[in-house]
Amino acid sequence: MSGEFDQKIHQTLEDANLQLAIYTATGRLKERRIEVVASEALPDYQELRTQANALKKHAIENLDYYLEEFERNVTAHGGKVVYCKDATEVSDFVLSLAREKGSRLIVKSKSMTTEEVDLNERLEHHGLESVETDLGEYILQLAHEKPYHIVAPALHKTRYDVADIFEKNLHVPRETVVEKQTAIARAVLRQKFLEADIGISGANFLVADSGAVVIIENEGNARLTTTAPKIHIAVAGIEKVIPRAQDVATFLKLLARSATGQLLSVYASFLSGPRRPGEVDGPEEFYVVLVDNGRTKLLPDKAKRQSLYCIRCGACLNTCPVYRKIGGHSFPWVYSGPIGAIITPQFMGVSHEPGLPFASSLCGACGEVCPVKIDIPKVLLDLRSDVKKTETREKQNRLEKLAFKAFAWVVTHPRIYEFLGRVASSMAPSGNGGWIRSVPPPMNLAPVRAWLSQRDLPPPPSKSFREMWRRR
Amino acid sequence: MPQGSRENILHRVRTALGRSAGQPPSEAPPVRLRIPEVDMEARIASLRMRIEALAGATHRVATAEDARALVAGIVAGRPTVASNSPYLAECGIASLPGVRTGIRETDDMRTAAAAAEVGITSADYALADTGTLVMISSPAEARLVSLLPILHVAVVPRERILTGLDELFTLLPKPADQTSSMVLITGPSRTADIEQILVRGVHGPGQITVIIVG
Ligand code: SF4
Questions:
Q1: pTM score
Q2: CA–CA distance from B189 to each of A182, A221, B146, B199 (Å)?
Q3: Could you read off the pLDDT of A282-312 as tens digits, one per residue?
Q4: Which of A311, A334, A369 to mutate to test the pocket of ligand 1 (most atoms within 8 A of CB)?
Q5: Domain count, chain B
Q6: Strand pairing class (B132-136; B181-185)
Q7: CATH code of residue B198
Q8: Is B13 in contact with A269 (Cβ distance < 8 A)?
């Protein structure tokens, strides 16, 4: 585990307010999901999952075909498709379009793919103003932070944090009532929507047979982003393509239920091409940017490519005991939780953060809640073996082996075993309910420290089993 | 303008999957759409229950005349924009005093919708099992009318109430064939981004009123 990963985990664990915020927010989302997927509420939930998995599997196995079909249909409806292999190509495309059209102001609705490629920073670096309009994303943009959660990006911020952020950046009087904070954002952003030259959105699905982009949201900011400005650019990973518009029904039923426990999100927009003759409003130009950015690296391995089925519902984060303790910012990239643990190493290479696939207890909860049935624990195990294969963990391995040898020797020598047990009892701290969090020298060797840094040992019994046995 | 990496990406995809250019896809899983039998009264009851559960308001009126009177009371002198839906004209809603309608130009629509407190539309369909309005963009229905004003009023004749999503996609297998934008609206605009506290009307309408006619 790298120092940074380790350090961020510690910071999160030590911050009691943050612990409470993560625990309550994910807990609520988790409970709402359970209510709406219960068999009384949605009898065909399991069948829908099976169908969603089959559709994603089929789409990925025939990805080139569906991408080309999608492209043909977008073009037929008067839009344009651009393929970008990495972050630079995405920002180059947006920049040159903005330059050609003389655009200055860009409004953006939530898109994890644009987070991946740091689009805002790149555009701002070139003098464009690029404003996030999802309330959570807007707060984070003002605070210069990355999303904490795929679905609830500002999950870690309290209303008091928001009050500080708005006061400092928007020069408004300090306001701690959430309704009023929302009204402030509405007013500021409404103006931006009406003035913006370009709207950049993400996409939840790309529909091949229709050339349509499907965008799902609750606030209405994506509708505004894709309607008010003259130019709409949708940025999406190539894995988002599905075969038919009729398949969207299956995904719509699963996505909102898994994400927030709603039957449907407030808005689901099917957008295809610029506005047609006679239509009163809507963009005059329509672009879809299809992004690779590491995705094609996942395709050759039949087991691991299922990571690309993800519909970014966030259910695996809410249910993950590890995410619920270490939070979103401990993760080294924009994707956190179980899905982050499997896609980050594959997009960025396992050596980017070798500790990542190990940050899981493999309890299996993520795989059980996943609406598209990604076997996350299996992929984690595969990645662990990749890390073992590629990384120079020999040193650690040697120490591990040594430790087990020592342990074996101790347990086969009863006197010494008993003596060490007594030492442990005497070491149990009086605080922490007796739980052991650290050990004094000379036992505080690096591997022991590292092992204990993620774990607490239960209080050792004051009398060992052997002692009690003798005294019977 | 940069043309990106089309060939490069498609080539990588094909190589990884062991496919060749132009190769047809394997057989797709069959479409899964199930339409339940639900009679009209039950659909109306479900639609109303779902919308109200999302803090929307619903009314049911017998005639177009009644709808007109109800809408007149809701508008009550507030700045209002109405879509060009023939159904609203038929109900006499488009000709209510103070209601701006007949807008064909984008800029006029932006100005009118941004200034309005009430936006009145019809809906192409409504989905009973989720409380959803289906809005298809056309010369009759602009997108901004159901988006910019803080109150969205939709007047829907009962024949347009479908059981749910599966029936919608059976009727419209490819919505993009007829419109550049189909939007499903389920309740008022909302957010829970700050401390999971639910706030309505963050960017779109904070209130939604659905009037079922017939
Ligand atoms: S991996 Fe599955 S559960 Fe996790 S975000 Fe993706 S779709 Fe949702």
A1: 0.87
A2: 12, 9, 11, 9
A3: 999 999 999 999 999 999 999 999 999 999 9
A4: A311
A5: 1
A6: antiparallel
A7: 3.40.50.10420
A8: no
